[in-house]
Design a protein that fits this description.
The structure is a single chain. The protein is about 65% helix and about 5% strand. The chain is mostly helical. Helix 1 packs antiparallel against helix 5 (about 110-135).
């Protein structure tokens, strides 16, 4: 289990994480899937969702620490009312793929890169809107 620290909500950091995720995803969606972009795209798509989860945790007065802190950040997004053609739970697959890239030297296939970009296209906007609603940025 990931240790959780109770924190005073950091509204400035929450805003910064959300804005950063929005900027990064808009760039990532311009990248053409290729072998040379594969790792960067998968890591980047995962990271924008992780940032949104971290923002949500911070707003709720929590901070994930320890080995599984990323899992807690992603899982925090599951509590949001998100309307999308994709389940937010697909982020677990993306997390596993990114883990392989970061820790095992795995090079994603073009199909996997395309899938990561499709997840970003279909899921990012509904998730970021739900996060913004909760944290008062809408």
């Amino acid at each position: 289990m990931t240790p959780v620290k109770v924190k005073v909500p950091d509204v400035l950091k929450v805003r910064s994480l959300v804005e950063s995720a929005e900027l990064e995803v808009s760039f990532l969606l311009t990248v053409e899937p290729s072998r040379s972009s594969s790792s960067t795209v998968v890591q980047g798509v995962y990271e924008v969702f992780r940032k949104l989860g971290e923002a949500l945790l911070l707003f709720r007065g929590k901070e994930a620490t320890g080995r599984d802190s990323h899992s807690m950040m992603i899982q925090e997004l599951y509590s949001l009312p998100v309307s999308s053609s994709r389940s937010v739970h697909v982020l677990e697959n993306l997390k596993s793929l990114r883990h392989g890239v970061n820790y095992d030297g795995y090079i994603p296939t073009i199909v996997e890169v395309t899938e990561a970009l499709d997840i970003a296209r279909e899921l990012f906007d509904p998730v970021v809107v739900a996060v913004k609603r909760e944290v008062g940025l809408l």
